Task: inverse folding
């Protein structure tokens, strides 16, 4: 891993002084997202997300495999992330840093452990054949807040994906070509979306939504809350040594609820535009 060069003392001091006045270096309000662009297609299960200068590509594919012995009626969900060394200074595609591992695990936990995908609906023949769904997330440009961009790209790709239709004839499964029958969407219970906040100051009393790369380098702590459209908390993740008060967590939750609705609407529009 190439050593990352942080901001200068002048840059950090300027950023903190601006935050004290309720202003951010890029002109946003403290609770504003950067410009979010989502595009799906042209093939099923392909989604690209651009959040400011951060760009992430997600691709979903599937194949028929044998299920795990202890879960004979459930499909398999695999998750893979790839950091391009061209995405930003300090990234190495051949080695993973602690931050990169944490981001990968967080996004995987959001998708798999929240049971967003109905694993039993991926079963073809119990104990014999199931669908294995693979989610590949590629980080193309690192402009800060990779977790939010990756979670949006992954769930958008899953909702856009279509698998081949299957007909069961006794103990035989017939998988139809997409040219013979229209492919079918995955059974998705809910849409988990990550919303990340950065905290600043010795006591962490200043916070911003959707921190940029510069803000991430200066922040003393970060907090990611994952919510769905049903207003349910799917996951929480805190990085950094500054403790958060219940009032801070409640304030973040209220802001995140509004942002999740906005992101869900943009995902729906992107999927509709690709059809």
Result:
């Amino acid at each position: 891993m190439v050593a990352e060069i942080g901001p200068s003392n002048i840059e950090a001091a300027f950023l903190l002084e601006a935050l004290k006045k309720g202003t951010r270096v890029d002109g946003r309000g403290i609770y504003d997202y950067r410009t979010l662009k989502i595009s799906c297609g042209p093939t099923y299960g392909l989604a690209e997300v651009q959040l400011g200068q951060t760009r992430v590509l997600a691709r979903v594919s599937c194949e028929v495999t044998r299920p795990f012995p202890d879960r004979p009626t459930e499909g398999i969900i695999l998750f893979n992330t790839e950091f391009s060394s061209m995405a930003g200074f300090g990234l190495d595609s051949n080695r993973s840093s602690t931050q990169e591992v944490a981001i990968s695990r967080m996004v995987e936990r959001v998708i798999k452990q929240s049971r967003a995908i109905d694993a039993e609906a991926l079963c073809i023949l119990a104990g014999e054949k199931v669908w294995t769904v693979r989610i590949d997330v590629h980080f193309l440009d690192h402009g800060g807040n990779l977790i939010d961009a990756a979670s949006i790209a992954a769930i958008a790709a899953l909702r856009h994906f279509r698998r081949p239709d299957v007909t069961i004839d006794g103990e035989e499964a017939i998988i139809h070509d997409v040219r013979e029958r229209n492919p079918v969407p995955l059974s998705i219970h809910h849409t988990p979306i990550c919303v990340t906040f950065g905290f600043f100051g010795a006591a962490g009393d200043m916070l911003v939504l959707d921190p940029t790369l510069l803000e991430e380098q200066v922040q003393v702590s970060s907090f990611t809350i994952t919510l769905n459209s049903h207003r349910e908390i799917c996951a929480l993740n805190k990085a950094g040594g500054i403790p958060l008060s219940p009032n801070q967590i409640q304030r973040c939750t209220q802001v995140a609820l509004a942002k999740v609705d906005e992101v869900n609407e943009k995902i729906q529009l992107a999927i509709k535009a690709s059809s």
The mean pLDDT is 90. The longest strand covers residues 129-141.
